[in-house]
UniProtKB/TrEMBL annotation:
InterPro entries: AKR (IPR020471), AKR4C (IPR044498), Aldo/ket_reductase_CS (IPR018170), NAD(P)_OxRdtase_dom_sf (IPR036812), NADP_OxRdtase_dom (IPR023210)
Protein residues bound to substrate: H113
All copies of domain NADP-dependent oxidoreductase, residue ranges: 24-283
Protein name, per record: NADP-dependent oxidoreductase domain-containing protein
Pfam families hit by this protein: Aldo_ket_red (PF00248)
Residue positions of the active site: Y51
Keyword set includes Oxidoreductase: yes
SUPFAM superfamilies linked to this entry: NAD(P)-linked oxidoreductase
Length: 360
């Protein structure tokens, strides 16, 4: 297996990247980890303003370039749009701040971090959430793509429903959906949808989260199936979990500040999990680690977790029409309406029938 996957833009995303959401790491720890990771062979660094370490990573990238360890074009750098910058006019500010902090001129991949919009400058808590307008935000993301500041654009934490809604209106389809995915939460339905639409899955928490709700001890890494496969292949459970992800067709973003573990996590090439052993992974109990209870509030936008993951993304459009009624209030993707704005009457009638079907 190659050490990269090809995105729908033609760009190559490394199969294994370094996650930098390390929580409350002491100053300098993440920067040192990024430097060690790149020297060890990592070429994808996954960042986000939410991780509160982009300035530190920016200093490290500058040092890597100055020391001649790598050139900018050797690295694939991902970052994400902060929830407070979802308004279309604030999206450019979001990427500009990240580029300044990372000391870069462009990002290889820029993602909408979550389908959550919060008041600008406010702490992203339920009382500060605003209704999302993904089509408007995505339109601004597309402008970044065309400008070259983001060489690929995508999303993160988007469910099947949200992906379908986005794909219906996108002029530039998302290149990546970054989600939790590992043997303990395989996301098969989402995986099949994204594969059919040419959207690459990139997995955060590919080793799970020990102690997460619904899991015991070390999480799925201690599952007998994972342990047995690891023993048979003379690999660690972590290596087996990462290799499973690669063979399922998605890139993986393990996070670590331990140099030994970083090297271990990168040692997933030159061997594979046989088909008969891959089939056993379907027997592993599935537990979603990131349930997002934190977004739920009785007076908030999301009353239940399900509201968050599978909320409809309607767009109400006021449309002038040649039909007997003067105006149509349609719940439909803008792009389809724009396509229907020209042509003769029969074509418009056919198109409106298609719009009605798309609402069901």
């Amino acid at each position: 297996m190659a050490e990269f996957f090809v995105l729908n833009t033609g760009a190559r995303i490394p199969s294994v990247g370094l996650g930098t959401a390390t929580g409350k790491a002491e100053p300098g720890v993440v920067g040192a980890a990024v430097y060690a990771a790149v020297k060890a062979g990592y070429r994808h660094i996954d960042c986000a303003p939410q991780y509160r370490n982009e300035k530190e990573i920016g200093l490290t990238l500058k040092k890597l370039f100055e020391d001649g360890v790598v050139k900018r074009e050797d690295l694939f750098i991902t970052s994400k749009l902060w929830s407070g910058n979802h308004a279309p006019e604030d999206v450019p500010e979001g990427i500009d701040t990240t580029l300044e902090d990372l000391q870069l001129e462009y990002l290889d991949l820029f993602l909408i971090h979550t389908p959550i919009r919060s008041k600008k400058g406010a702490i992203p808590t339920p009382e500060n959430f605003l209704p999302v307008d993904i089509p408007a935000t995505w339109g601004a993301m597309e402008k970044l793509y065309h400008s070259g500041k983001a060489r690929a654009i995508g999303v993160s934490n988007f469910s099947c429903k949200r992906m379908e809604d986005l794909l219906a209106i996108a002029s530039v389809p998302p290149a990546v959906n970054q989600v939790e995915s590992h043997p303990g939460w395989q996301q098969m339905k989402l995986r099949e949808l994204c594969k059919s639409k040419g959207v690459h899955i990139s997995a955060y928490s590919p080793l799970g989260k020990p102690g997460s709700p619904g899991s015991m001890g070390k999480g799925f890494l201690s599952n007998p199936i994972v342990v047995s496969v690891a023993e048979k292949l003379q690999k660690t459970p972590a290596q087996v979990a990462l290799r499973w992800g690669l063979q399922m067709g998605h890139s993986v973003l393990p996070k670590s500040v331990n140099e030994t573990r970083m090297k271990e996590n990168l040692s997933v090439f030159g061997w594979s999990i046989p088909e008969d052993l891959m089939a056993k992974f379907s027997e592993i109990p599935q537990v979603k680690t990131l349930r997002a209870e934190f977004v739920v509030h009785p007076q908030g936008i999301y009353k239940t977790v399900e509201d968050f993951w599978d909320a409809l993304l309607p767009i109400f459009c006021l449309v002038t029409s040649p039909f007997p009624w003067p105006r149509l209030h349609l719940l439909a993707p803008v792009r389809l309406l724009q396509q229907a704005s020209s042509g003769d009457l029969p074509q418009r009638i056919d198109h409106l029938q298609g719009l009605r079907e798309s609402i069901r």
